[in-house]
């Protein structure tokens, strides 16, 4: 096999993530060449959904894979649509970063220390819903932009705080900016947050074999449960969703524990449910917990009227 052409977007986060995968492929003995891909989402200043919604970033990269312009692509798993792409396969889900969200606030403040009326920026319906449900009187302001831009809103004094994925800060070496790691009891991360998906064409067995060595079984199992929950909910609920699976020690060996959130963006309704199941059946666990959420009221949740026209839910969380 000649050099693997690894496609990457130009953003700092994308190049860091692609570089991480490239380093591991090189360590496994492969030659890797990075190929830059420009996506519609990178050039547009519009809200993501105005230019096509879920998977805007993923779509251009996937086209390059299918066209044969690149051999390997690295996605943030949480930005990848749940529907599989015909002709492509996620050959590896490498070991994931801490999947929790963090607060980046002025003056080193934590969520509990922010005064009522403090202005917190996020473009994510999931974060909006969970922050509102805390009942702290925070004012949520929709923002978008890459990680640097969003941190900049706080350092410039435009916002009191923003909420970001800890994994993004960690990969960019910006963890020192975080003023609090948010407990999943308060804010559950997006399904798949902190994990990467390394994708290639299903018919390239040589590439699949090269990439598969990066797969981490526990991470794949956890994100499979989280994304199965999301996929099942998408059929019957448009509400913001958070999910986090963890491998736990059961009486008879390893088990999977899955926690989930669904709620309204104004914070007036929230559902939190959890379920433990066998380690080797992550898809069933996710689907079962989704059905519990739907039965307990998630099916009746509709996007709040003020935001419904701006963004449907289950969207990528923001440009990165
Ligand atoms: N498009 C948003 C996005 N996609 C992936 C990450 C961070 C890394 C990850 O969650 O894997 C982010 C930034 C954020 O939510 O703060």
UniProtKB/TrEMBL annotation:
Residues 311-320 have a biased composition (Basic and acidic residues). InterPro entries: HemC, Porphobilin_deaminase_cofac_BS, Porphobilin_deaminase_N, Porphobilinogen_deaminase_C, Porphobilinogen_deaminase_C_sf. It catalyses: 4 porphobilinogen + H2O = hydroxymethylbilane + 4 NH4(+). Residues 4-207 form the Porphobilinogen deaminase N-terminal domain. Keywords: Porphyrin biosynthesis, Transferase. Residues 221-294 form the Porphobilinogen deaminase C-terminal domain. Its EC number is 2.5.1.61. Binds 1 dipyrromethane group covalently. Pfam families: Porphobil_deam, Porphobil_deamC. It comes from the Bacteria. Residues 300-320 are annotated as: Disordered. Its cofactor is dipyrromethane. The keyword Transcription does not apply. The keyword Transferase applies. The modification S-(dipyrrolylmethanemethyl)cysteine is found at residue 237. Monomer. The porphobilinogen subunits are added to the dipyrromethane group. Tetrapolymerization of the monopyrrole PBG into the hydroxymethylbilane pre-uroporphyrinogen in several discrete steps. Belongs to the HMBS family. This is Porphobilinogen deaminase.
